[in-house]
Amino acid sequence: MADSLDIAAVTRLTGLTARALRFYEARGLVEPLRTASGRRHFDAAALERLNLILSLKKAGLTLAQIQRLTANRRIDLHGLITAQLDHLEAQARRISDAQALLISVKFRIDRGEPIDAETFCSLIRHEQQESTSMSQDQWKAVTDRYFTPQEQAEWVQKMQGLGPEFDQQDYAAQWKALGDEIKAALPMDPAGDAAAAFVQRWYALLKPFTDVATPAMWTGTMKMYDDMANWPVQADPGFDAEVWAFMKEATAARMLAGDMIAMPKVE
Description:
By secondary structure, the chain is mostly helical. The protein is 67% helix and 3% strand. It folds into two domains: 5-58, Multidrug-efflux Transporter Regulator, Chain: A, Domain 2 (Orthogonal Bundle); 77-256, no CATH class. A three-stranded antiparallel β-sheet has the order 1-3-2.
């Protein structure tokens, strides 16, 4: 293997960690060579593959999207790029809105207005309410694609069973916090202890839905999230396609290990 590099050399060359390289291998994104003793070595083809992955990640694609794009299967590249552009535009809007709010408040402070913490928080809540209204419109565009009006009516009826104490905004914020935490921890072994802990927290947070969902609702929701790259707008469920794909892998790993995971029976 004179023309190949060991894992330490590749980490220095690419900036990737050894953990990330092992995770990419486990996901089938790269296939290193093996020495007689089992040590990983990366030849020119593997290095080219890693550089491709890094380039696609810089373009904002998730590992799940990269995996589909590089798996020699037919893929709607136009649709994938369109969805990614929608996602980046949504991120840019959120950043722009945050900047506009901060600039506005700073301008008022510079003029001598008495902006205290309570007033600042009030302005943030007002901004969040406007954002929530836009988010609801985005979700309507997504659910209209995957669920009939009759199915959506059943959704409303079932979710009413959660009771008046259920706070949808707080629930969405919990999903956002968990999704961001999982995203920051990637890559990781879907069969490892860290992934198992995330699976436990994921299904604990999902419990209000699993308590009321029918098998048809569960199946339809799984199909909807599996198709996130093709959503007509970039609605934000609190996690992206990469986190969703990882959690499916981690859940399957826990089930293979014999863990009992509460979910409706799929039709």
